[in-house]
Structure prediction request, 138 residues.
Amino acid sequence: MPKYFFAIKIEDDIAHFDEHECNHLRVMRLSVGSRISFTDGRGFLYDGELCYFGKHAATAFIKEKWEYDIEPSKKVHIYISNTKWQRESILIEKAVELGVSSLNFVQSERSVKRDGKKEKIDFLVRKALKQCGGTVFS
Prediction:
């Protein structure tokens, strides 16, 4: 099983991981010195070595960096009316895995009100990118 992670910030040759990724690292039973592959969600794939691993944060030294500039011949934009979270989460996850260019949320007359779902959506997009091995989502 590939070790594929999501870096929240890249500075110089150091990648920073948040609490969610630390949990993923822990579940995979990785430790300092382990080799991992990760993306930043901006079209880059990295290969690195864990140099710090704590409960709420981790860092990795970047060994190699590849840029994936894959532009689809046609861009697909999806407009989603707010709905129940269970249905919406499946739609978001599958859209990211299939390579949709962007997701746009609209409020319609009979849609469910959205209250602070941005963080949940961002986290879901990260999980879907890791699942499918993607490197870019706008």
Observations:
- DSSP finds three helices and eight strands in the chain.
- The radius of gyration is 16 Å.
- Helices lie at 19-27, 85-98, 118-132.
- The mean pLDDT is 84.
